[in-house]
Design a protein that fits this description.
By secondary structure, the chain is an alpha/beta fold. The protein has helices at 18-29, 56-69, 79-95, 102-121, 180-190, 211-219, 370-378; strands spanning 9-13, 33-40, 73-77, 126-128, 133-138, 143-148, 171-172, 227-230, 236-240, 263-268, 273-277, 283-294, 304-309, 317-323, 329-338, 345-350, 353-364.
Length: 381
């Protein structure tokens, strides 16, 4: 138990899952003044079999966990925030031929935006969440740094690069040093009702029927404008159903047959055209990113050698980042990378430190390397 001088007021973002509930238990056990808060988005999926964070069931589970722990719990309505800041962006991006990452946007604008500002205005010393990541103060560098979590299977720093560095001193990630197995052990120790609850893996506002059905229900099928599907030479080889239905690297449900595998390698909003071709067309030597955010360092003024991830499950690879201005950068890979997807995030790492990242704007092809890549892929069968 901490002494009263070190006792802090900690608001815990509780989604109803085991991770955030355990965080509340850890903060209570440490002797802090703990308040549980749940963000209500007014999202319901009546026929969903999988758990969804922040739905009705999630709110009830969070409320029950707070009762078990003996802490106050509040439900705050953020339905307008998620609609205007997350869902609208999600639909706009797909209609523009890009593939968004709403979890990055949610962390930036909601959890560490709207929610963070509200709890701080109510006297919180800290906002604590159930993310598997770390915030570390480097005495050597005299700054706070966002770092990877210890559990390599749950590590979530990729989704957090868009946090503002000014928030780091006031945010806690208590799960950063432990594993999911240990989290469940703590949940049993605290007697939590959700100790065995499976994790939510899906986007909270997307039902089991998928994002395409969600877009149709929200926007209407008439918004999905069919258009030409072209091959590498520019020849029309079919018709697509609407560019929102396609993403870079897609192979299935293209509606065309070439007698060999072909993939979506480019989506052109201006021409309302989907381009398909051999796997070699999926490779890029570099990319342009915009909406940059540097969370652990000041914006670099020169070339920066880093490790990058171009999507959450992507292996980190070496690259060079060159900032073009305050908002844009060029990322050059040491080796061509497959399926660089506009709308996704590229995140920069220095070992376990998250330096920052941005949204992928465009991918640049490796020009004359197509043949080499194609031969290499063909040799794999």
């Amino acid at each position: 138990m901490i002494n009263q001088a070190n006792k802090k007021k900690v608001f815990v973002a509780m989604s109803g899952g085991v991770d955030s509930s355990v965080v509340a238990g850890m903060m209570k056990e440490a002797g802090h003044d703990v308040v549980g808060v749940t963000m209500c988005f007014n999202i319901t999926h009546p026929n969903n079999k999988k758990p969804s964070c922040c739905g009705i069931d999630g709110i009830e589970d969070a409320k029950r966990s707070a009762q078990i722990l003996g802490i106050p719990h509040y439900v705050w309505n953020f339905a307008e925030d998620i609609d205007t800041k997350i869902i609208q962006n999600f639909t706009d991006e797909y209609l523009s031929g890009r593939t968004p990452n709403p979890c990055v946007q949610c962390n930036q604008h909601l959890k560490f935006g709207s929610l963070f500002e509200k709890v701080r205005s109510m006297g919180a010393d800290y906002l604590a969440t159930g993310h598997y990541a770390k915030i570390h103060f480097s005495t050597e560098k005299n700054r706070f740094e966002l770092k990877k979590g210890e559990d390599q299977f749950k590590e979530q720093s990729y989704f957090l690069y868009s946090m503002k560095k000014e928030t780091l001193p006031f945010v806690l990630f208590p799960l950063g040093d432990i594993t999911k197995t240990q989290v469940r052990e703590l949940a049993r120790k605290y007697g939590l009702n959700n100790a065995e609850k499976p994790g939510s893996q899906d986007i909270c506002f997307i039902p089991e029927t998928g994002y395409k059905k969600f877009l149709e229900d929200r926007l209407g099928k008439e918004v999905m404008m069919p258009g030409p599907m072209k091959d590498e030479s520019g020849k029309i080889v079919g018709q697509h159903k609407g560019i929102a239905y396609y993403t870079i690297g897609q192979r299935d449900q293209l509606g065309v047959s070439f007698g060999r595998p072909v993939y979506v390698y480019k989506i052109d909003k201006k021409e309302n055209t989907v381009y398909i071709g051999d796997i070699a067309r999926l490779y890029s030597r570099s990319l342009l990113a915009h909406k940059l955010n540097f969370v652990s360092i000041n914006p670099p003024l020169k070339n920066l050698r880093v490790q990058v991830k171009i999507r959450y499950n992507h292996k980190e690879i070496p690259a060079r980042v060159t900032t073009l201005d305050n908002d844009r950068a060029k990322v050059e890979f040491d080796e061509p990378q497959k399926s660089v997807t506009p709308g996704q995030s590229v995140v920069f790492y220095d070992q376990d430190i998250v330096l920052g990242g941005g949204i992928i704007e465009t991918a640049e092809a490796p020009e004359g390397d197509f043949l080499t890549i194609q031969m290499s892929e063909s040799s794999k069968g």
